[in-house]
Amino acid sequence: MIKSIATLISNLNKTNIISQAKYTTSVLPQFSSEKYAVKRKKFGVLKSADVEYFKSVLSEDRVLTDESDVLPFNIDWIKNCRGQSKIVLKPKTTDEVSQILSYCNKNRLAVCPQGGNTGLVGGSVPVFDEIVINLVHMNKIISLDDISGALVCEAGCILENLDNYVRDHNLIMPLDLGAKGSCHIGGNISTNAGGLRLLRYGNLHGSVLGIEAVKADGTVVDCLRTLKKDNTGYHLKHLFIGSEGTLGVVTKVAIHCPALPKAVSLGFFGVENFENLLKLYKSAKSSLGEILSAFEMADNKSISLTVENCKLSNPIGDYPFYVLIETHGSDETHDNEKLNRFLSQEMESGLILDGTVTSEPAKIKNIWHIRESIAGAGMINGYVFKYDVSLPLRNYYDLVLTLRTRVGDRARVYGYGHVGDGNIHINVSASKYSKELYAILEPFIYEEVAKVGGSISAEHGVGFRKPQFIHYSKDKTALQLMRDLKQSMDPNGILNPYKVLPDLPDIEKD
Amino acid sequence: MIKSIATLISNLNKTNIISQAKYTTSVLPQFSSEKYAVKRKKFGVLKSADVEYFKSVLSEDRVLTDESDVLPFNIDWIKNCRGQSKIVLKPKTTDEVSQILSYCNKNRLAVCPQGGNTGLVGGSVPVFDEIVINLVHMNKIISLDDISGALVCEAGCILENLDNYVRDHNLIMPLDLGAKGSCHIGGNISTNAGGLRLLRYGNLHGSVLGIEAVKADGTVVDCLRTLKKDNTGYHLKHLFIGSEGTLGVVTKVAIHCPALPKAVSLGFFGVENFENLLKLYKSAKSSLGEILSAFEMADNKSISLTVENCKLSNPIGDYPFYVLIETHGSDETHDNEKLNRFLSQEMESGLILDGTVTSEPAKIKNIWHIRESIAGAGMINGYVFKYDVSLPLRNYYDLVLTLRTRVGDRARVYGYGHVGDGNIHINVSASKYSKELYAILEPFIYEEVAKVGGSISAEHGVGFRKPQFIHYSKDKTALQLMRDLKQSMDPNGILNPYKVLPDLPDIEKD
């Protein structure tokens, strides 16, 4: 039994991030409620009549109740959180989502909306017995206007599938991230996913044109417009971008896709120290200007652990820091001229110690694969504590060094991320989860981030894991306004409970 | 008396759009409440004790009650709307705004937040006796991080002043519009202003980093972060972007400023017909790619009326359509190569009949000045009915032709706008306001826009003039959610009443 369950989890976890990783997990994670000592709120408990109702709305095969069928939907992919849901619903239409929510709201049944389940803060799995509403079957592309770039699709579409589809029409998706092979566009929007191209194409608040979402009471809110400019009243779509399924379930999406770049180049460089890395960033911004589409960094430990665990090969030598620079442009000759000028200038200045520049798609893919594999690579050693913070650039790497001293030989601490957005991912990789290490890391990390005015969650969100720490980055008045919105839009609190919003005592203790 | 009042209005109206216009207005506009038959809602009436309180919070010189002092703040710059406020308050600090609102909320006194008063839908002037809160004295720049590009300032800063300031630090403001010499950044954000560079630098939902706003009850909501990525809870700042002062008064702003382009070029071209203009747009997107920063159009009537009324000179001959293309890039040689290649290709193809290309700042300024003067030029003939709509590109110019037939010789109908955003401004210029013409135009225009799925307000907002038409572009469920938010955040409805939200019967008749 354990073996088949492990296989199920492993299948669920086959995102392209970790597709090369060999899973040997045979032990299930502890229940989140026990691990983090959470009390169940007073929601209704699922009865057989409820199951019958759901079967009447959906076809029987889209209502999962068998324990082994439900299990993978209860566990997040970093195996940190585990819920106890008894049922997974897989609606195919907005109307089905509406009927489910209307029923749950009337019967005070809590729900957990779920996309590709690639979230990193436990937001996409239940905590107790919340009903999982998984949008995997809402995966239709509705329309694409290849002149304006407006794509309309259902929330359960996988990001990579969308990207492949729009590429055939000379467009690209405005976002890209390691989990693209599994994550859903609805989940991307619900978590305001950032990713690898934000530097160039901006954030989702800028590129989402319209949203259809279902409120807790089943009301379908139709803001699914495809216009670039529409100033008729409140900009409601933003309520659903980044609210992690606590204000509504996103069912359809209209998003602006930029033009497919005619020329793409990539540079992978070795750098002596972080000070030089920052200088290189400033120089790249100036020299590459409008064609700079990514400026990513990784420290030596990130790369060495990744190439070792994922059996990859590092195309350049061993350096203290690595920088990945990508350009998207409309003229290959101009772009190469800019990139080569930058490269020779910074090789001469010494900011770049060594590196490789390529325009070959296969080589580009290989180098991106190393960068994208960092997120999953540490998990092969056992357990990874994952942090995702925004910091002022002058403080960007300090926290990694501070943590190495603090953690000692208990774990490996490494940092990588999106320099252009001030966003660093700090991973602490250990052989297994331990409460001692947890207590060493948290809330220390959040305190350090707050000291320099950073954000304790740059792009991963708050989810289940961070509500008690949100006050480090969110003002009391803002928290109260969040609470007012939740009260107004989901008065029974059935949508993704135990997530995002802290319980009142946590606010008061701030 | 009339003369001095006219001078006051004229002074207030001296935006750079119409600075060359000679005003001879000596008749005041009709009261909005009479012109549009609006009933006053049950708010408190200003008493002398209230005035005394405001004087105790602000210094006496920042409380205007003299009729002639107050008058300019009651009239919008297109002289369409006129309120009857008895008092203008000019706070200097967020705390003062908070005290004012807290007092007004307790005493059910309605308020009208006001920036540079350059709005085009009557949103920035009172309808009845709302207390005007003008933010002109909140004009301090707080900080600028010239590496990240984060500018923090008070809401009353004038857009052009900010642009000049950040240019000294090799940055530009992400938005630009004709009223830049008068409009406030707080007003830009409250109306989600679009403008001339949106094609390149995106909308304000993408570029605003943080906001401080004061709610109706005086609560200061502090979301004034400067981080590019911050996913800690609901993205509250978006509630204040584009809600036109009905959910809160924006007091401080953090905004991301892009790098000052090293090379700027501009082309001004004559085009045979709209079909060719659209082809030219597609070609420009492909040839100029990432350096295209504006693609503006104007029809023959727009340009001929503007050069005549504003005594400007058209640098090229007489053509059915004009196109203004601007590039922002980091390498002058590359940019000119792209632009010249595009120009010679499209001269040869015949899409461009004639034109001029320049990189000289003075010439660039002159050509932009023609484009920016169109908005105010028609007013010199008397009165302009102004429409600002988003339309699918294939329908972009049809409405101008339809209206010309419908209006006949009663007025001049012309169209100009931001092709890249699907946003056209349609002006109907007459010798004076007439109810007959009004009835010919509205709701006909909105019906036509709704037929093709456009927006009845692309960038100007809803304000006082369009709530009764909002249902042409906004779904019932979205309107209900707007109402719920208003109820939650401003239960007494004191913030900018009679604006944005339609009265209930208007929803029901939809």
Tags for this model:
homodimer, 510 residues, alpha+beta, seven-stranded antiparallel β-sheet, 19 helices, 16 strands, globular
Summarize the helices and strands and which ones pair or pack.
2 copies of one chain form a homodimer.
Chain A: H1 2-12, H2 32-35, H3 48-57, E1 63-64, H4 67-74, E2 88-89, H5 94-106, E3 111-114, E4 131-134, E5 141-145, E6 150-154, H6 159-167, H7 185-190, H8 198-201, H9 204-207, E7 208-214, E8 220-223, H10 237-240, E9 249-256, E10 263-271, H11 274-288, E11 292-299, H12 300-309, E12 321-329, H13 332-349, E13 354-358, H14 361-377, E14 383-390, H15 398-407, E15 412-418, E16 423-430, H16 435-441, H17 444-451, H18 476-489, H19 504-508
Parallel strand pairs in A: 2-4, 3-4
Antiparallel strand pairs in A: 1-2, 5-6, 6-9, 7-8, 7-9, 10-12, 10-13, 11-12, 11-15, 14-16, 15-16
Describe this structure in words.
The structure is a homodimer of 510-residue chains. Chain A has 510 residues and is of the alpha+beta class. Chain A has 19 helices and 16 strands. The first copy, chain A, has helices at residues 2-12, 32-35, 48-57, 67-74, 94-106, 159-167, 185-190, 198-201, 204-207, 237-240, 274-288, 300-309, 332-349, 361-377, 398-407, 435-441, 444-451, 476-489, 504-508; strands spanning 63-64, 88-89, 111-114, 131-134, 141-145, 150-154, 208-214, 220-223, 249-256, 263-271, 292-299, 321-329, 354-358, 383-390, 412-418, 423-430. In chain A, the strands form three sheets. In chain A, strands 13-10-12-11-15-16-14 form a seven-stranded antiparallel sheet, sandwiched between helices. In chain A, strands 5-6-9-7-8 form a five-stranded antiparallel sheet. In chain A, strands 1-2-4-3 form a four-stranded mixed sheet. In chain A, β15 and β16 form a beta hairpin. Chain A is globular and about 75 Å long. The relative contact order of chain A is 0.12.
